[in-house]
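Bench notes, afternoon.
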Amino acid sequence: MVGIDDALGGAIELRASVRPEVKSIIEGLRERGIKHIAIISGDHDAPTRKLAEELGMDRYFAQVLPADKAEYVEKLQKEGRKVCFVGDGINDSIALKKANVSISLRGATSIATDTAQIVFMEEGLSKLCDLRDIARSLDRNVKTSWNLIPRSQWVLHPGRFHDGLRRDGLGADK
């Protein structure tokens, strides 16, 4: 409320602003197969619900105390979900530590950037979909590489080993 000369002059409403890139990022994550996106917020229920609906979130948790954010991360993990938590404040540090993947931003508190596994050097989340693409590509490459190792051993040494014993008798139990 704003007073002017001892009289009510108006009211000021404060609400969180949504970064302009967030809607396209959420669409991009959905296109990449992310099935469940949630908000964990310390804000009151009504504005958090409105934000969740506006952004197309699957779920939201409102009025969450800072110490309880990590409990919500654990709750999602117990449901079988892999949790990527994005946070920028002191209140997010425990949840960042508990998450499977944790991301912070340039300009965040030092404890958030020190705790996060990934820190975007930009102040926004515009690279989040690129990060997902890189991670998926790296995962595919690692799996392909691991699958090639046993096959190459088989090709290089066919018949050299049989049932764990060498054919020449060396190393066999006697």
